[in-house]
Amino acid sequence: MKKPDKILKTDKILKTDNLKIGYSSKKNSDNVLFENINLSGCDGELIALVGKNGIGKSTLLRNIAGLQNPLKGEIKYYDKILNDYNRPDFARMVSFVSTEIINVNNLKVFDLVSLGRFPHTNWFGKLKPDDINQSLKALQMVGMDDFSRKNINEISDGERQRVMIARTLAQDTKFIILDEPTAFLDLPNKYETIHLLNRLSKQENKTILFSTHDLNIAIQEADKIWLMMDNEIFEGAPEDLILNETFNKIFENTNLHFDKIKGDFRLKRKHTEKIGLSGDGAYYNWTKKALERLNFSVEKGNESISHIKVRSEDGQPEWILTSNKKAHTFKSIYDLSLYLKVQIK
Amino acid sequence: MLLKKQIIFIWIILIITLVGLFITDILLGSVTIPVKEVIKILFTGQTDHSEYFTIVYHFRIPKALTALFAGFALSVSGLQMQTIFKNPLAGPYVLGISAGASLGVAILVMGISSFAIVSQFGVLGNWTIVTAAWLGSGLILFLIMAISARVKDIMTILILGIMFGSATTAVVNILQYFSNESMLKAFVIWTMGSLGGVSLAQLKVLIPGVIIGLIITFLLIKILNAMLVGENYAKSMGMNVRLSRFLVFFSTSLLAGSITAFCGPIGFIGIAVPHIARILFRTANHKSLLPGTMIIGGIVLLFSDIVSQLPGQENTLPINSITALIGIPVIIWIIIKNQKLAAVS
């Protein structure tokens, strides 16, 4: 193993080499989930593994975390094959957070975090002052230092996920692998958790790999995306994958497409009727969204067809719909949409 | 979270209670012996009344020691099973150890003796019965070990253990059906458990067996703590899953198997006591839970033994019924008070 100070930022310290993953079976042929996986990760990178349900994300992560053996091919850390490391050495290099929810009565947050010291302590698991300090520091890094004496089942899902991350920090590994760390979290906690991972990858110079369904978060925070498609796997900076249209391949058979300019996902809508819209700023944008939801094709400033004018004088907005030379005024987008729904019928 | 002072206080109370009950257990019996004489025998080994000496030295001390070590062994093995299977209702017998032992005894008492090879098997607790019980539980242990080396999922092992237990019980039932009245009674009495049948000579085998089992368990504190978060996490922290399972099953079988061989199956202690320790120490950390469970186990079984002698004279109640009558209210109380039993262990 190379000494960490000799590693260049461009060195691929994590590599998969023609990896074939799945479940082996003695009687039947192997159940192959994915093959020809060639991916890599560098020093201090936050890597998001993205792909649809059941495609083998968890299995790939379990293979890379050394919890399951590949059917074929190799996983290399620092150019050394994973199985050539002994367990304790490997546990000092790679830590793992699964989707399992730890729900043990009377288990203190500190006790759970200090379990991360497992590969560093002796057979009796005696915590030396240094082990205690590392565990407390880990809690501090995730902002949970006030929770160390709480029970693990008395804290929220977001807090528990941060504690699980603190456990990997106490394990003091170069690599951290997390399976769906945002699965049970609400939106603010999702962003905070992934942002925390981003911060740790930069500040602590760790290579962090996580799987997620949430492309938006992955695009914003990850240095690199591993994108699992039906038969192929792509890797690259999220921006590269956007610009070369790789993301749209995910949605080939769906109603979704990825908007390259705006950087988010849109439903492909079948517009039935045209409508004109004029107005300014946020009022214009949100009215347009609402109209599109009602399957109108919005034409900016076109007054030759039915059209809507948004006015917002004195902070009191008004929507004026002119249709067949009759004008209707509405106080909210909701009222406007109710009227339009009746009209469409 | 308990303060250090509170924990020390709990420990002092527990140890005083244990010593107090141990002495009380020796004081009580069908023959009334003055306290002074008992203390004299206990501390100097001498007395003017030789019959007192015989009763105290050959009957009461072995019985109290048996109760003490049976309490230690059953509750500690119950704790181990609850932790490894992450199941609050697991006990020392979930692996089928007692079923195996009763099969051994059933074959001896009702099978072999019906062919008149052993026409008189004499008093319960003699070496033949002990050996038969040991062979029976050893067979089950061997099966469990063979399976645990091959099966990955720990829950599968739990289910197979219960299946073995049920299958063995079915065979025992068939034997019971075909055996004659006196044999049946002898067997049923064995299943009721007895602390009084262990001689001083047998204690010289039983106590070292239990002590070895306890030493192994105390060496496993770190591993048991890691198992709280599941085998996957434990493996990712560098734990050797196969070796750990082997050691836990081995020590459990040694503890529960030895006690069952000498005393018959004694229920409820193994399930209830770990919960009492959890409530008392409010922790899931085996560093305090394990010694706590051990001491409380000794206390509860000594107490049960004292209660079983309450009718006085020659009659003592079957110990198995007493432990059930004490254990069940405790479990009910815990469930109602705690209502989070599902998350325990």
Task: Summarize the amount of helix of chain A as a percent range.
Answer: 25-40%
Low-confidence stretches of chain A: none
Provide the CATH top-level class of the largest domain in chain A: Alpha Beta
Shape by Cα distribution of chain A: elongated
CATH architecture of the largest domain in chain A: 3-Layer(aba) Sandwich
User: SSE order of chain A in H/E notation?
Assistant: EEEEHEEHEHHHEHEHEEHHEEEHEEEEH
Which CATH architecture of the largest domain in chain B would you pick? Answer: Orthogonal Bundle
Tally of helical segments of chain B: 14
How would you describe the oligomerization state of the chains in this entry?
heterodimer
Task: List the total number of helices of chain A.
Answer: 11
Percent in strands of chain A: 25-35%
- CATH topology grouping of the largest domain in chain A: Rossmann fold
Summarize the structure.
The complex is a heterodimer of chains A (345) and B (345). By secondary structure, chain A is α/β, with parallel strands linked by helices. Chain A has helices at residues 57-64, 87-91, 109-114, 129-141, 157-171, 187-203, 215-221, 238-243, 246-250, 281-293, 333-344, and strands spanning 12-23, 31-37, 40-42, 46-51, 72-77, 80-81, 94-97, 175-178, 207-212, 224-228, 233-236, 256-259, 264-267, 273-278, 296-300, 307-313, 316-323, 326-330.
